[in-house]
Each structure stands twice: as structure tokens, then as C-alpha cells.
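FIELD: query
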Amino acid sequence: MRKLSAGYFHSVDGVIESPNLWQFDSFDDELGATLGAVMASVDTVLMGRVGYQEWAGYWPSATADGEFADFINKVPKFVASHTLTKDRLTWQNSTLIEGDLIEFVRDLKSRDGREIAVMGGISLARQLLFAGLLDSLTLITHPVVAGPGKHLFEPSDPVTRLELQDLSRTSKGNVLATYGLRKQ
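FIELD: result
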């Protein structure tokens, strides 16, 4: 069974929206190496509509951004959306998920391949976590209070027990905490 993971840049006050506004002064070589290892282990990406539209507007022409641009432009991307249509997915290697999302992801996890990563999809990662399909969730907490912005979790979310799988910190004070669902 393939592993399904998600990872998000996160401020101390819990903001994950628009990390480009607050993360770069704390981005360091260790964090870059960690992200490089993620790219090396992933061969499939899941995206939600909002993340897909934002990223598809930037990454196809962002060739100067090097390694990540090469990765994200070439990797197969499956997009979960109730409003997008196949013909509106113009970014290379993008496919619309048709039918039930949870069934699709269960089937995808059962196929041969390397790791599957949720990228650019806050609500998608939440759905997959609460459905019990997300194997790991990494929060990369930057030493900054970002102020207003979206959080990964909401007050109305169900109580969900997690267990710490890995914990490390980088030279610029980023904390990488990886969690999995606690096994009953």
C-alpha cells in the first residue's frame, strides 16, 4: 500500500495560508534538503481546486525556480474538484478526479508506485485525514507570528487523535513535526 502524505508551512500562530508572505527569511539549507527528499520519494500529487488554480497560474512558467518547478510540472497531478472540468485542466500531467474522492484515493493507494503527496490543498488534506487515509501530516513551523490567514484546523473539526512520528529542527529555528493517525 502506497503512503499518502501532506505537509504545510505553518506559522507559530497556526497560519498556513500564503506562506510566501512570511517564510523566506527562515528558509534554510536543512529545510531545502528535507523538501528535496520529499520530491525524491513522491511520484504522484493530489491537489484541490483552489491550490490547483493558484499553482497552475504560476508553476508552468516558473522554470527559473529550479528543482521544485521541474518536479511539480512533470509529476502526475490528480485534481479534486466539483466545479472544474477536464478541459479546464491545462497544466501538463493534470487529471480530474471523477467519481467519489475517497474511493479514488483508496484505489490510488493500492496501486504500485512511490509516495502520494497532497500539495496545495488545505480542504483536501483535511478530508483525507478525517477519512483515515492520510498516513502522515508534516507541519513545518516557522518562527514567525503571521497574523491573519487560514488555519489547517477549525473549531468544528472532530476530535482526532494523532501520534508524533518524527520531530526535528533546523538551524534557523524551523520545527518539523510529522504526525500520523493514532492506531486504535
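FIELD: remark
The helical segments are 29-41, 49-56, 66-74, 101-110, 122-130.
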